[in-house]
Each structure stands twice: as C-alpha cells, then as structure tokens.
Design brief:
Elements: H1 13-37, E1 46-48, H2 58-73, E2 79-81, E3 89-91, E4 94-95, E5 100-102, E6 105-106, H3 108-116, H4 120-124
Parallel strand pairs: 1-2
Antiparallel strand pairs: 3-4, 5-6
Helix pairs in contact: 1-2
Length: about 130
C-alpha cells in the first residue's frame, strides 16, 4: 500500500511525488509480468487501487488519485477496484467513520464496504 511505502509521513510535495513514481513503477512492473505469464484463456487481471488511511491529508489524496488514474489507464488491467468511493472514503484520503480498526486498516464493516465497492460484473468480465 502507499501507506506501507511511507506516504503518510511525507510532507514535501517532491518527496510524495517521488514515492508515487516508485510505487507506480513497481506496481506496473508486477501487472505487466502477470499479463505476460497468464496463459489460461479468459484470465483477467483485477487490481486494487489505493485505499484510505486516517493518517493521510489532502496532499496525500492527490497522489492516491494519481495512482488510481494511472492504474485505470494500464492496458494490462482488466478492472481496477476503486477504494476511494464514498462507501469507504470520507475525503482527504481518510476512512469513513466507523470503518477502521486502526489508521491504516479496515475493521469488519470496513472490509464489507470495501467488498461492496467491487463491481462484480466487471470482475467477471460481463
């Protein structure tokens, strides 16, 4: 996750952008490798976009949105799950009230709302 990479603790825009660039490069490399190795007809690549963290601020959200849009643009990805929807995201990159077990992780209801963020028709390719 972007938080595991250290995004919440960065304040300088250049540092946030550098982390975002590294994150995207690594994630894109994984997705491209998966696409190259998929041999089963109809196999699909479904990836998760960034999810909330209560340590994020508005400047972090800009980077989360950039990552989400980049992932959506990758031709290797069949469906990108958006976890910055109002079901889980309260704004500024933070969890909706009552959905987190700690700053960076959903509780049971948070997991349920994240699952509700999936478009199952897109997951299944319908």
């Amino acid at each position: 996750s972007m938080a595991n990479e250290g995004l919440p603790w960065l304040r300088a825009p250049a540092d946030m952008d550098a982390l975002t660039d590294r994150y995207l490069a690594g994630y894109n490399a994984v997705v491209k490798a998966l696409r190259q190795h998929l041999v089963k007809p109809g196999a699909r690549i479904i990836v998760g976009c960034p999810y909330p963290n209560d340590d994020y601020e508005e400047a972090h959200l800009t980077r989360l949105e950039r990552v989400r849009e980049a992932i959506r643009s990758w031709p290797e990805v069949d469906y990108a799950v958006d976890f910055l929807t109002p079901l889980v995201h309260a704004g500024a990159g933070r969890w909706c009230k009552g959905l987190a077990s700690d700053a960076g992780h959903p509780n049971s209801e948070g997991h349920a709302q994240m699952f509700a963020s999936l478009d199952l028709d897109k997951v299944l390719g319908h």
